[in-house]
Batch of 3 targets.
Target 1
Amino acid sequence: MLSTAQLTREPLVRNAGLFMTSPELAAREEAVGLPPRTLYFRGRTAVLGDPSPGVVAAVIGIFPEWLVEAALVRAFPADRAIDAYLGACWDWSRNHHAGTPEPARFAELAFTVVDGAEASALPLFRGWREAARPDDAPAALGHALMVLRELRGGLHFAALRAVGLGVTQAVALDPGGGRGRLLRTGWRPEDAEALLASVADRPDLAARWRQAEQLTDDRFDDALAALTDAERAEFADRLRAL
């Protein structure tokens, strides 16, 4: 049987990240005077203060550092970046979760996991867990899922490093990633091809990637243990229904 972490992996990662490339985020970006496609980089990592492009590239993991250097507006204050990024998350959630059945109950389950999780070595997760939360249920649900996504993402990056893989190597090895995802996240074609060739020459890396996936699921299941068996089943059903 698939664990709750395995059952919820795809809907959590996909749904909780949709606001990051949404019209709602673009509108918040324009409202605060940031150039197009820059709020994601400044906003998502603003809970760390004023990190350098190298730190942002390392924490997010997927984008090439040259792109982060071009897109990171460090002069924009961290508190305003947090407000704008959260505002985009809440705007998107109000527009898309208003019809979700019992969003307050769904958010309650998600926040139970968020608040009970061990946060050491997971800086983005810890930072967003401490951020202000909205009062209305649709926005609270989107907020909770965003923070859970940071939890799972941080656990995944830790698992990759534990088995000796870099994040970009994992993207190249992932059957759902590969060349297409590298190009969508700003990689130059020649750099993407070089990365793909480097992992193709190492057949052991695919086994390491599968091991990291399992480790991520195991550790996320540990966090989900904050819920009862019945609550975990309910949480999975609600998330898969989104």
Note: The two ends are 22 Å apart (CA to CA).
Target 2
Amino acid sequence: MNLKSYLEFGPAVHMALIEKKPIIALETSIISQGLPYPHNHETAQLLEETIRQQDCTPATIGIVRGKIKVGLTPEELNFFSTEADIKKINNRDIPVALVRGWNGATTVSGTLACAKLASVEVLATGGIGGIHREFSETHDMSADLQQIANTTAITVCSGAKAILDIPKTLEMLESLGVIVGTYQNEEFPAFWSRNSGCQSPLRLNTVEEISAIFKTSKQLFNEKGFLVANPIPVEFEIPRNIIEPFIKDSLAKAQVQNVKGKELTPYLLNSLNELSSGQSLISNIKLIKNNANLAAQIAKKLSII
């Protein structure tokens, strides 16, 4: 397979691959669909700078005019932050986006699929998708879960988004054979909240331990995912008892307005931002930065073991 016709690397990412230096993949859906302007552009820049401060290379990934771009330019970051006609791209959508010449913002599943093609093994994001709360009626399950399971990579997140059914999401991750652990905490986090009420399958104590587990898994198995949940810093947390009523209210409004599919998560995040008087947005940005920092530490350790 000739990947050159599909992939385009930013100069810094191209050099880091040649020199085998640590690289961290970042998604673009959080820029185009997850956060409002100008917070999305500021956050994209913040994440890249956080990673550079750890002597690692950020690789923000998106579809640019029908090409998988691994490592966006400042102009492209601004484009993804401001352009209205950016399609939301999961793993399934990538071939269509390439053939039709789309501009597309990749979700976790889309970013992981592209990172796999580019040989990038660490991804930092906010929260992964999972099993939706009305799954028995809608059968709505994020493509993130299957892609995480089928990609030899570490995904650093703050757990699954709190709007989801976290117990069922954890059960599905177990069924798919994904290694799941929480960094320095006994409970699996729930995005804005440090605790979800669900025991984490593993407590991960150090970056060294995370790196060693991933290296061992990679040696033993082919295409085995590793999910590292990183709780939001205490000072930026929104406790479950505060955010949960907002989530239920937002879900009820979405049902009345028949919002579903790819439009549901952006709708809910916007509603929660309004109901929390902007606190959910602030916490969202802080947790993503925290995840980028941990991902960089892990990538650095992987590059020397």
Note: The CA atoms of residues 168 and 295 lie 26 Å apart.
Target 3
Amino acid sequence: MVLREPMILQMATRNFDQIEALLQQGQRIEPSPDDQARTVERAITKRAPFHRDKNSVADALLMEMYASVVKAETTDPADRYCFVTHNTKDFSTVDGDTRLPHPDFAPYFDGLRSHYLTSLSAALTLHFPDEFDELLEEFDLREEPRSLDEILAAEQRFFDLIWYQRSINYMEPVGESARRRIEQQYEAGELPPYDDFGWGMLNGKLSTLRWVLGSEWDFLDT
């Protein structure tokens, strides 16, 4: 991947559609005879990624193609390159820091113009730390957990509504005063009758809240 200044502008737009369009404009490369020859040589000499005694021709060819792009005389000296992979078993150092390339690949990465990285986020953070951090903060979807008071209030609400429905079903005369309290406390649209889906949702919510509060699953006594 060649990272140039336009990427910064794309990140600043906060528009994922434009980022996707930028990636789609990437240059497709094909393996050259030299890439294939170096791949065969790697296999013969058992150098990474052939150190694992498996068919790693495709992985080796990817690395050789990357090296050819970085070393090409036609490239702009200002260009920066990243080889980004999650396949640390084939490409990273063995029994060490997996963020580092295998020693057999080390000559391809000088840490200045060419970088070995194990995640796309690490690549973007490396080259555009301010812009990428801001983008992550803007689209951080983590939510703060509910307070105990909120959970207890919700649990009481679903308890009331379920008890009210059950009380009507069994026509419990001793529950008349409690039913009047609930009728005054809740909106008419919150009270029964419920269809099967609505009734199931109420019970599921009560069960979940009680589990959070320490009860076993499916504890629905009222």
Note: The CA atoms of residues 126 and 132 lie 9 Å apart.
